Design the sequence.
């Protein structure tokens, strides 16, 4: 069953049963989303990046002058910034051997019938069309550099909800895009934020008007189909006052020996009394460098929740953040990282308390197998004027092999004494005595190992809101432990 099918079906089951179901995990050595499709690339810019490539991307998209200027400024920042000297090893990235833009011959269409047969086959295998009909308020499907399909329920359009590709939003809602883009994550934030700002393409633009409550999730799926490609989607979300929405994002890529880069930027503004849930299930093949910047601003009494599932990739560096800007704002990050042979997943969270009576919660689980390495890297910051702040961090790691590795790099900057900050961390191994006990009860070694992992993940499932318990469902199909679900 595909990633999207599993995620959405589990979502519906959760909502119907009103309780958290058990995690089921099976062993599977296959990467089921690694299929390749032969398709006409339409237009592929040559390898490498310079100012001319940036200008050409903007020209192809027929962008206004202000967006070209935004891109060019970002490109020069990218060139001037050094590679990160911390975290995972990025020394083998060769920016001169990457395609920064590959355009599908398909135009962005609202009719599934108008999508080309090869692209359609790709998303049919992933499960987009059926789950859209049955479970979603709207969907976007991106293939390489461009969104090729998008839809939104009519009743949501009538309420003033906007859900389209960010490229389309630049043309149709330039004032909104220009007002907010780069305000939460400026191009100067880090080298890869600058890179994305220079060459971004596709992604989702969402505006939820005041008071709108959307129960069915919005969905985006990002597929890299080409070798040696960079995918740089740009997602910008504005949740207006008193609104509620949830958004699900899935990602995958074929199996290639050459490295590719996925470097997205996600900016979210959650206004007064609004609540937004952003759930990611990324299941990359082991040739992908997954280098993503995600950040949200939460204003007075707003709630921002990140649910972050990371499987596969050669390297992942991703730390969803919430800046708590208004009194009573709440932030939460619940993450799971699974690292297998030759993989380093450096993940975590950032909570920055800039107002009084704010609260945050970080739950991080990681599983390492073979020579896999999983690292937690987090920050909790409380400024001096922020009183009555509460924050809790829980980091747990499970090692399945003697060569597996885990690291924890927590950072706390607390400038106000009237705070309540707690941090706990554990590291555990699958012991031979545990396996022996379970196997003596008739379980195979595989089933015994799976049961131990289930027990490790179960506390995370309990902590999740029932709608979100779904998203750990597909952290899976690895050489490591198959499926969490």
Sequence:
């Amino acid at each position: 069953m595909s990633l999207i099918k599993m995620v959405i079906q589990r979502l519906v089951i959760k909502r119907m049963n009103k309780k958290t179901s058990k995690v089921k995990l099976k062993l599977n050595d296959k990467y089921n989303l690694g299929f390749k499709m032969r398709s006409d690339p339409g237009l592929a810019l040559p390898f490498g990046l310079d100012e001319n490539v940036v200008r050409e991307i903007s020209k192809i998209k027929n962008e206004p002058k202000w967006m070209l200027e935004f891109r060019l400024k970002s490109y020069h920042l990218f060139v001037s910034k050094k590679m990160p000297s911390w975290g995972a090893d990025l020394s083998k990235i060769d920016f001169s051997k990457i395609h920064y833009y590959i355009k599908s011959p398909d135009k962005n269409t609202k009719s599934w019938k108008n999508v080309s047969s090869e692209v359609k086959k790709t998303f049919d295998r992933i499960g987009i069309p059926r789950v859209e009909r049955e479970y979603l308020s709207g969907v976007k499907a991106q293939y390489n550099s461009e969104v090729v399909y998008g839809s939104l329920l009519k009743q949501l359009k009538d309420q003033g909800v906007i859900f389209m590709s960010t490229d389309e939003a630049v043309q149709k809602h330039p004032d909104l895009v220009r007002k907010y883009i780069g305000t939460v994550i400026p191009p100067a934030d880090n080298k890869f934020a600058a890179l994305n700002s220079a060459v971004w393409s596709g992604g989702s633009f969402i505006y939820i008007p005041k008071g709108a409550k959307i129960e069915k999730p919005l969905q985006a799926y990002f597929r890299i189909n080409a070798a040696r490609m960079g995918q740089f989607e740009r997602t910008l979300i504005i949740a207006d006052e008193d609104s509620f929405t949830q958004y699900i994002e899935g990602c995958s890529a074929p199996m290639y020996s050459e490295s590719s880069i996925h470097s997205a930027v996600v900016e979210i503004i959650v206004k007064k009394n609004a609540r937004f849930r952003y759930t990611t299930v990324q299941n990359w093949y082991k040739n992908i460098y997954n280098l993503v910047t995600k950040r949200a601003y939460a204003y007075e009494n707003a709630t921002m929740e990140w649910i972050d599932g990371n499987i596969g990739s050669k390297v992942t560096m991703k730390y969803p953040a919430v800046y708590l800007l208004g009194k009573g704002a709440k932030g939460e990050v619940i993450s799971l990282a699974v690292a297998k042979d030759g993989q380093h997943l450096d993940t975590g969270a950032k909570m920055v308390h800039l107002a009084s009576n704010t609260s945050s919660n970080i739950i991080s689980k990681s599983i390492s197998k073979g020579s896999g390495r999983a690292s937690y890297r987090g920050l909790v910051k409380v400024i001096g004027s922020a009183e009555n702040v509460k924050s809790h961090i829980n980091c747990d790691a499970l090692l399945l092999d003697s060569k597996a590795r885990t690291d924890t790099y927590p950072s706390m900057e607390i400038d106000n004494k009237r705070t309540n900050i707690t941090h706990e961390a554990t590291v555990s191994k699958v012991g031979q005595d545990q396996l022996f006990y379970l196997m003596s009860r008739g379980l195979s070694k595989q089933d015994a190992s799976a049961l131990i992992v289930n027990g490790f993940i179960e506390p995370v499932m309990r902590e999740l809101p029932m709608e979100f318990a779904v998203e750990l469902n597909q952290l899976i199909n690895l050489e490591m432990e198959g499926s969490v679900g």
The radius of gyration is 21 Å. Residues 1-33+431-485 form one domain. Residues 445-463 form the longest helix (19 residues). The chain has twelve helices and 24 strands.
